[in-house]
Amino acid sequence: MTNVKINSVAKNYGQVSVLSDITTQFPEGSFTSLLGPSGSGKTTLLRIVAGFVTPDSGTVSIGSRNVTNVPVWARNIGMVFQSYALFPHMTVRENVAFGLARRGIKGAEARSQIDRALEMVRLPGFGDRKPKQLSGGQQQRVALARALVIQPSVLLLDEPLSALDRRLRQEMQVELKRIQRETGLTTVFVTHDQEEALALSDQVAILDRGQIVQMGVPTDIYEKPKTRFAAEFLGDTNFLTGTVSARIVTLSDGTAIRLADAEVAPSDGQSVTLAVRPEKIRIVEGVADAEPGLNRLQARVTAVIYAGAALTYVLTASDGTPFKIFAQNTTGTIIPEGAQVTLTWEPKHTILLQDQA
């Protein structure tokens, strides 16, 4: 197993800065997702690690080896592309063998490694088929087997599941996680799918405009976003703005919101932005008193989205702030549009963002 270190990497295309002074590392044996919108720089960073793109400055190391100027074929990386990039005129076995042939591995040794790779991706017996005879999920497994058969130091995945339908994508998520755990390969995965990143990763890096705005384990990234961008990019979020005084944030209508005990409160009088995830909030019809210690505000239901097992309430708070609440449909009772409601949540779910209001 091998780690990957990125040190002060920058890349420009003309006057456009694609990556700006990126320094990070992908630990040995970890599964790291690079998450961000189109144009955030995530694919460029992956391609720099692979060797397809040369950085304008900075270095890339795989293990103890500086590979910044080492060609792709000499880096011992396995890569799976969004388009699969299978050779349509070759059989599955021939596609998987391609990397081995380039390394001079043939005959019985090659056959053994190919069989092992196809077994790992659960495609034994498919070796004589052509890509057109396979489903999308099976083609993606062949592409993965081709990347794994060369026994790479690092596995790089460039949105490999985006072309699959939801069911196949979920199946392949399970398979990717299993294979990564079995092989112990340091894996870097590019995606724009937030749920996918949370489900698969040991750590997630959120990129925006060529910079990593936050990186950490999925639970920290989701539960403790540092900025408004990170909070709203990784799932639905409600935002509140107010003024701090003695660890209380007062909204424009006078509603008092308590900060979590773990939060380091800014100076009194400072305007701040808070975030609260929709699933953390409890909704009760009418004007109700909150349990001691809970945050509370009044709102009106403007829309209800019924999805069988779950409900989404769209609301407007008394200070005009838009809100969204997720609720499980445990009783079958739906609060109607136009109803006045009380929203409550624990202060520990109030996230103080680093962005100032």
UniProtKB/TrEMBL annotation:
The keyword Cell membrane applies. One of its GO terms (biological process) is quaternary ammonium group transport. Transmembrane segments: none annotated. GO terms for molecular function: ABC-type polyamine transporter activity; ATP binding; ATP hydrolysis activity. NCBIfam families: potA. Its EC number is 7.6.2.11. GO terms for cellular component: ATP-binding cassette (ABC) transporter complex. Keywords: ATP-binding, Cell membrane, Membrane, Nucleotide-binding, Translocase, Transport. Residues 4-234 form the ABC transporter domain. Part of the ABC transporter complex PotABCD involved in spermidine/putrescine import. Responsible for energy coupling to the transport system. It is an enzyme of class 7 (translocase). The keyword Transport applies. It comes from the Bacteria. The complex is composed of two ATP-binding proteins (PotA), two transmembrane proteins (PotB and PotC) and a solute-binding protein (PotD). It holds the Pfam family TOBE_2. This is Spermidine/putrescine import ATP-binding protein PotA. Belongs to the ABC transporter superfamily. Spermidine/putrescine importer (TC 3.A.1.11.1) family. It catalyses: ATP + H2O + polyamine-[polyamine-binding protein]Side 1 = ADP + phosphate + polyamineSide 2 + [polyamine-binding protein]Side 1. SUPFAM superfamilies: MOP-like, P-loop containing nucleoside triphosphate hydrolases.
